[in-house]
Amino acid sequence: MKSLWNDQEVVKYQGDLALRVYTSRLLGQEPSLVLHGGGNTSVKIRQENLVGEVEDILYVKGSGWDLATIEEAGFSPVKMPHLLKLAELPSLSDSQMVNELKTQMIKASAPSPSVETILHAILPYKYVDHTHADAVVTITNTATGWERMQEIYGDRVVLIPYIMPGFDLARLCAEKFAAEAGKQTIGMVLMNHGIFSFGETAQASYERMIELVSQAEDYLAQHNAWKIPQKSVIHPEKSLSYTLAKLRSQVSQSAGFPVIASLHCNDQTLAFTQRPDIAEISQQGPATPDHVIRTKRLPLLGNEVDSYVQAYRTYFNTHAPQAKEPKTILDPAPRVILDPEWGMCTIGRNAKDAAIVADIYHHTIEIIQRSTLLGGYQALSAQDLFDMEYWELEQAKLAKGGQTPIFSGEIALVTGAASGIGKACVDSLLKRGAAVVGLDINEAIANLYQRPDFCGIPCDITDETALKAALERVIRTFGGLDMLILNAGIFPPGCAIEGLSTEEWRRVMSINLDANLVIMRECHPFLKLAPKGGRVVIIGSKNVPAPGPGAAAYSASKAALNQLTRVAALEWGKDNIRLNSVHPNGVFDTGIWREEVLEARAQHYGLTIEQYKTNNVLKVEVTSQDVAEMVAHLCSDVFAKTTAAQIPIDGGNERVI
Questions:
Q1: Residue 114 · residue 98 · CB < 8 Å
Q2: Out of the domains of life, which is the source (predicted)?
Q3: Are 77 and 101 within one domain?
Q4: Can you tell me the distance from the alpha carbon of 522 to that of 527, in angstroms, rounded to the nearest whole number?
Q5: Alpha helices in 374-445 (DSSP H)
Q6: Domain containing 311 — which CATH number?
């Protein structure tokens, strides 16, 4: 563990709170210290209020903020005197504690304070840092963890036995700290949870954290438990797409909503899942109780989803009666699936959640294996983990719920996605919560967006081998396919039939028709498994009902694709797949309508460019976004009972009418 403190960089941060932001971000930059909102930091500041009174205020990391990107606005300012009075109470429920913390904030717009706010308050230091350092958790998650912590740190840290975060933990820490802390104390270890450091300056508190974690790393290295032996692994040679899509379908059914299932088939996951003791070491529990909210207590080993669900219900029924208040069972579907044939699959309500689960479990794999090398991995008891998973505060969040995007957990594939209508479709689907894969011959598609719910794949759709490889990647990335948007196509320059070459005819047909047949055929098995039914939308053309002269190849290819869609609707209805077409006309914000082309066509009709753009019954311009919004609606429940429809989006075309 290296200190990232930089004397040149720190001069940009003036004031106690700004320095708190700086060192918090340093901690957040190191994944082995904190992951996805884990850990928290604070600073105690004396400041004057509006009426001239001097107050002691604790600025503590607010709920929902990540240390890696936190700003001053991410810290909740809470009045210190009240916090210290709360710490002296004999008891305080979690809901009461949350209410007290909120009512004692001096800024109404600040986020809710961390549940460990009182714990930060009682520690008699200006700066307090708390992380879930992998190295520390690795050692505490062993049968002899307590003794090893004493061996490593001696009286430099106060050791706290595991207890749930919240008021009871703060009380216990206050008692232990008062009894055991001395001048030599620079930290505190919470068994099976994490580590605290503190100091009178931001630099001192931060660098003490680095020092303490480094000691734990050194201890693991000295006991041959740091470097994980690299073993040869067997990589799958066959396609995994149908296996994964089937698994995702089963998990979605168990969860009661569509999920993203992301495959992580690499040396690390395969080596872990192919261990002979995997059935023992993977079924102990998470590295820290905080992770149970994301990963559930145990991963599924193998693919028996029904067995996992039954075991989870048994787990709930066993431990719920011991709770202080009635509990509502969460969905029983796994969040981590391990299999020696293909490694690890992580599950989430959306792509971001699945990615977070993956990050957490990649670290968990290392922690489990290092703990095993140190003598044996030992997580908290099932009851302790149940209490965390069904914590009063988490149940309150569940009760409040929130509006879920309509396509959350669903996967869409859009062809011709780098620009124009295709890109607009990507945007509309992302906006509604879908995970989207974009295909395009333009290699810029790979970098269209850098976000967990988008995957851009350069692909020539006339290359059947490339198409199949792209579809395999779709399933490995997100787990299945729910929506297929067939947009890719070409509109060649105008040419009368007598001048149309066979080569040009076949080129247009290969892109506009043949490639779409292959995509539909190859996607069919996955669309059948879509939890809410498969949906296909074809971007057709006004030329289907009303062809124009000089566009024989284009008009014929689009008409044939339209007929193919109608046949597919007849054949696939039994598979709960619906197919519909939209027929746009005059969408001028696409690549084919270059400025010079637009000017030439307007002059041909004796119109201005603006008149040409609105040359329809309603006198409106049709944009890519207009088409994309129609596509999104066709994929929604609004059209749940519609298939084989052909919907014009052209402002009203006289030739069609």
A1: no
A2: Bacteria
A3: yes
A4: 10
A5: 382-389, 392-400, 420-431
A6: 3.40.225
Enter the tokens of residue 477.
């990335």
Rounded to whole angstroms, what are the CA distances from 291 to 81, 146, 193, 305, 360?
Answer: 32, 21, 10, 21, 7
Q: Which amino acid is at 290?
A: D
Distances (CA, A) of 232 to 211, 267, 274, 366: 35, 8, 10, 17
Q: Torsions phi, psi of 84, nearest 5?
A: -70, -35
Q: Is 248 found in the same domain as 177?
A: no
CA distance 326 to 470: 48
Instruction: Point out which residues pair with 142 in neighbouring strands.
Output: 377
Q: Is the pTM of this model over 0.85?
A: yes
Do 631 and 485 share a domain, yes or no? yes
- DSSP-derived secondary structure for 250-273: HHHHHHTS--EEEEE-SHHHHHHH
CA distance 653 to 657: 6
In a domain, 96, yes or no: yes
Q: Is 231 among the domain residues?
A: no
User: How many C-beta atoms surround the C-beta of residue 280 within 10 A?
Assistant: 12
Give the β-pairing of 40-48 and 127-131: antiparallel
* Interatomic CA distance for residues 174 and 150, integer angstroms: 19
DSSP state of 326: -
pLDDT value at position 605? 85
**What pLDDT score was predicted for residue 156?**
97
The tens digit of pLDDT for each residue in 460-517 reads: 999 999 999 999 999 999 999 999 999 999 988 889 999 999 999 999 999 999 999 9
Task: Write the CATH number for 575.
Answer: 3.40.50.720
Number of domains in the chain: 4
Quick one: 432 and 534 in the same domain? yes
Low-confidence residues in the chain, pLDDT < 70: 395-401
The residues, ordered by sequence, that sit 6+ positions from 455 with a Cβ below 8 Å of its Cβ are 435, 436, 437, 438, 473, 474, 477, 478
* φ, ψ (nearest 5 deg) of residue 259: -130, 160
Quick one: pLDDT at residue 400? 61
Q: Are residues 458 and 441 in the same domain?
A: yes
Q: Can you give the pLDDT at residue 591?
A: 74
Q: Do 334 and 436 share a structural domain? A: no
Residue 396 has a pLDDT of: 67
Range of the domain at 336: 241-400
Same domain, 276 and 377: yes
